[in-house]
Specification:
- The structure is a single chain.
- With 322 residues, the protein is an alpha/beta fold.
- Helices cover 46% and strands 16% of the residues.
- The protein contains 13 helices and nine strands.
- It has helices spanning 19-29, 50-56, 73-80, 101-111, 130-139, 152-155, 171-176, 188-198, 219-235, 246-262, 266-287, 294-300, 304-321, and strands at residues 9-15, 38-43, 60-63, 86-90, 95-96, 115-123, 145-147, 166-170, 202-212.
- Strands 1, 2, 3, 4, 5, 6, 7, 8 and 9 form a nine-stranded mixed β-sheet that branches.
- Helix 10 (246-262) runs antiparallel to helix 11.
- The longest helix has 22 residues, at 266-287.
- The model is unreliable at 317-322 (pLDDT under 50).
Length: 322
Amino acid sequence: MTLPIHPSVSAIIPTYNAEPYLDKLLAQLHNQTIKLSEIIIVDSQSSDQTESIARRWNTRFFSIAKSDFDHGGTRNWAVKNSSSDYILFLTQDALPADGHLVENLYTVLAADPSVAVSFAKQIPYETASPVEKFTRHFNYPDNSWIRSIHDVDKYGIKTFFLSDVCALYSRAIFDEMGGFTSPILTNEDMMMASSLLRRGYKTAYQASAIVYHSHNYTLKQQYKRNFDIGVFLAMHHDKFPVKDEVGEGLKIVKTGARYFLSRFRLISLFQLLLSSFVKYLGNRAGHHYQDYSLREKLKRTNYPMFWNRFYEEYGKQEKSHS
């Protein structure tokens, strides 16, 4: 199978109040060595200048109700409205480091047609905290890799690591898989990785494809984010044939503790330990989401709209079985 030298690529970017990022992101996307066929923006009722910026760059702009956003479903809808052979998913706060991002991601797919998706290395913004900078460098090393389902014994939960912050998918394989799971609370990319690997495809991390991306989350935001991840893993535990993912978190803590101690950065060490403990609490609570009422779940989650849809669907199923 020979892939085209000049592939058609559609970029898809879900947005919400993306004004601080969008101009720079779109400028970099227009500066790629592999020219994009189109840029599709699906916006969730932003209250800032997101729409005017997007239209100024001649993107295909769509607006949906904020309550209708779904990590899987919204992206699926955008893909159905795209026209290219490859799909580049980006988040609004991911900034390509250079003009070779798409080219470097595509090179992996061109070299091995069994690779269904390649995703980019994330390096932190200068404004990122020391703990966030360390975590990005830990999760996104300088060496590229390709993984298959046969790597589970070696890498555990990391076998399914995939990030739609910046990832290039084969459209044909994406369609073959039926798109992302929907509705889904979070980690639509990780769920897709599981489906792809189980189908015999491979995923690739391409360290030469680089975007700037990082967050300085508060402890409350860390708790909510990891609550959602815990729920996701509990709901879909059958898709990930590995032991508990806590071991991977402990690796980060141990490596980070040595890193900060060796540099006598005790404040950063304390922040690492505190944020890791909060993440752990959120993750454990998420794993036991069934013990909480809807009201309690809504306090802990980043995506209350998912839970409202989840219980609406659950109610329908209950009525159909009664």
